[in-house]
Amino acid sequence: MTHNQESGNDQDSVLRKPVSRRDLLRMAGVGGLGLMLGAGGMGGFLQAGRSLNANSSPARNTGDQVPFYGLQQSGIITPPQDFLCFAAFAIRSKKLADVRALFQKWTAAAAEMTQGRMIGEWNEQHNSPPSDTGEAEGLSPSKVTITFGVGPSFFDDRFGLSGKRPAELRDLPAFNGDQLSEDWCGGDIGIQVCANDMQVAFHAIRNLARIARGIAVLIWTQEGFQRTAGADPTAQTPRNLLGFKDGTGNPDVTDKKAMAKTVWVQQIEGPAWMENGSYMVTRRIRMRLEVWDRTQLSEQEATFGRYRSSGAPLGASKEFDPLGLDRVREDGEPVIPVNSHVRLAHGDGSVQILRRSYSYSSGIDRRTGQMDSGLFFVSYQRSIAKQFIPMQQRLSQSDKLNEYIVHVGSAVFACFPGVREGGYIGETLF
Ligand SMILES: C=CC1=C(C)c2cc3[nH]c(cc4nc(cc5[nH]c(cc1n2)c(C)c5CCC(=O)O)C(CCC(=O)O)=C4C)c(C)c3C=C
Ligand SMILES: [Fe+2]
């Protein structure tokens, strides 16, 4: 049975499917095949499987899935879920064959987790460690997406892949004001897990790290959140920790032309292995919340160039009204200040990125007593050099927001194209 056959949205279809070797093994592990067949023919067999095995339990909501297989990886233009668990890995093995085997195992595990299934075949054997750590058993897939990328260091001389590094994929230049800590920088591999349940997201990262044992190790992680769908059933633009709607100016992910222009690497630019992939930038941006909270509202709004409550551009009335950067006040000054965040990020409007950021809160800085909270900025783009870098250069030079933020982490990853069933993540490269 293929993974895809198991991924249909119709729960009944799960019951009509042929029983796989894996199912047989699993069922044998919980008391013996003969015993279950004795429970009432094939119908009883399947029923017993449902009740005894969380993998096909009716509690797993199959409508709550984002397909894992496809032309492009999920988790990029997928509408952002409520929670993020991000992980960067360093590869310890020097053998490409080990890395390939790891990505093959990760692919199988990711396909299972995104369907809300437990990983592997050894979850009912009492004499071996389970192949799934178990904390997501009985939980819905929660729209979990698992997005894989490789960083510039993946292409050093360890694996013979240096000739395949995309020109795009290099560490970002130092920007004005950066205070980067290696605690949140770089990585041979970056994995973005997003889900509508934190335990489901954590489970995914934990199990991917467990599977990597002996081949790759975690070097940094970051959890993130936004308001949940439960708290905002009408799905308004989420607010960041500075209280402003964040995401309004994103390109429309349902517009295929816009996504081809902004997000997906095209055949024409290469390298061939990246076609339908995308470049991801992560920046851990700490907010000086205590300073912001002492700033008057009019100055906060001038900082962004938008009103806090409605999210509308200054001088306009609705959130999605055009920015109107040409408008001037009676005193001749621009309505949207020249050093405001939206004006600088927008530039001349010809270049966009797709932002997919999450708020984070990681306790306090014990040295200062201030909260270590902010934005785990994530963006996807076709070209880091033509899209992200010029934008961040403008922002780092003149953005009024810089009084209230500091960039403390930075990483870039080439996110592979999607994977076909039977294939594995990264197969276009190695
Ligand atoms: C280099 C890219 C960007 C970084 C880094 C960045 C940091 C950052 N942004 C906010 C809050 C907001 N950003 C908004 C708009 C916006 N930001 C960027 C890029 C970066 N932001 C772009 C491209 C845009 C859209 C500009 C446009 O064309 O309209 C807004 C306004 C609402 C919105 O459009 O989302 C807010 C609010 C924070 C807090 C932050 C770092 C902590
Ligand atoms: Fe921004």
UniProtKB/TrEMBL annotation:
<dbReference type="InterPro" id="IPR006314">
    <property type="entry name" value="Dyp_peroxidase"/>
</dbReference>
<keyword id="KW-1133">Transmembrane helix</keyword>
<dbReference type="GO" id="GO:0033212">
    <property type="term" value="P:iron import into cell"/>
</dbReference>
<keyword id="KW-0479">Metal-binding</keyword>
<keyword id="KW-0408">Iron</keyword>
<feature type="transmembrane region" description="Helical">
    <location>
        <begin position="24"/>
        <end position="46"/>
    </location>
</feature>
<dbReference type="GO" id="GO:0030313">
    <property type="term" value="C:cell envelope"/>
</dbReference>
<dbReference type="GO" id="GO:0004325">
    <property type="term" value="F:ferrochelatase activity"/>
</dbReference>
<dbReference type="InterPro" id="IPR006311">
    <property type="entry name" value="TAT_signal"/>
</dbReference>
<keyword id="KW-0456">Lyase</keyword>
<keyword id="KW-0472">Membrane</keyword>
<keyword id="KW-0812">Transmembrane</keyword>
<comment type="function">
    <text>Involved in the recovery of exogenous heme iron. Extracts iron from heme while preserving the protoporphyrin ring intact.</text>
</comment>
<keyword id="KW-0560">Oxidoreductase</keyword>
<dbReference type="Pfam" id="PF04261">
    <property type="entry name" value="Dyp_perox_N"/>
</dbReference>
<protein>
    <recommendedName>
        <fullName>Deferrochelatase</fullName>
        <ecNumber>1.11.1.-</ecNumber>
    </recommendedName>
</protein>
<keyword id="KW-0349">Heme</keyword>
<dbReference type="Pfam" id="PF20628">
    <property type="entry name" value="Dyp_perox_C"/>
</dbReference>
<dbReference type="InterPro" id="IPR048328">
    <property type="entry name" value="Dyp_perox_C"/>
</dbReference>
<dbReference type="InterPro" id="IPR006313">
    <property type="entry name" value="EfeB/EfeN"/>
</dbReference>
<dbReference type="GO" id="GO:0005829">
    <property type="term" value="C:cytosol"/>
</dbReference>
<feature type="domain" description="Dyp-type peroxidase C-terminal">
    <location>
        <begin position="237"/>
        <end position="419"/>
    </location>
</feature>
<feature type="domain" description="Dyp-type peroxidase N-terminal">
    <location>
        <begin position="73"/>
        <end position="226"/>
    </location>
</feature>
<keyword id="KW-0575">Peroxidase</keyword>
<dbReference type="GO" id="GO:0020037">
    <property type="term" value="F:heme binding"/>
</dbReference>
<keyword id="KW-0732">Signal</keyword>
<comment type="similarity">
    <text>Belongs to the DyP-type peroxidase family.</text>
</comment>
<dbReference type="GO" id="GO:0046872">
    <property type="term" value="F:metal ion binding"/>
</dbReference>
<dbReference type="GO" id="GO:0004601">
    <property type="term" value="F:peroxidase activity"/>
</dbReference>
<dbReference type="InterPro" id="IPR048327">
    <property type="entry name" value="Dyp_perox_N"/>
</dbReference>
<dbReference type="InterPro" id="IPR011008">
    <property type="entry name" value="Dimeric_a/b-barrel"/>
</dbReference>
<feature type="region of interest" description="Disordered">
    <location>
        <begin position="229"/>
        <end position="249"/>
    </location>
</feature>
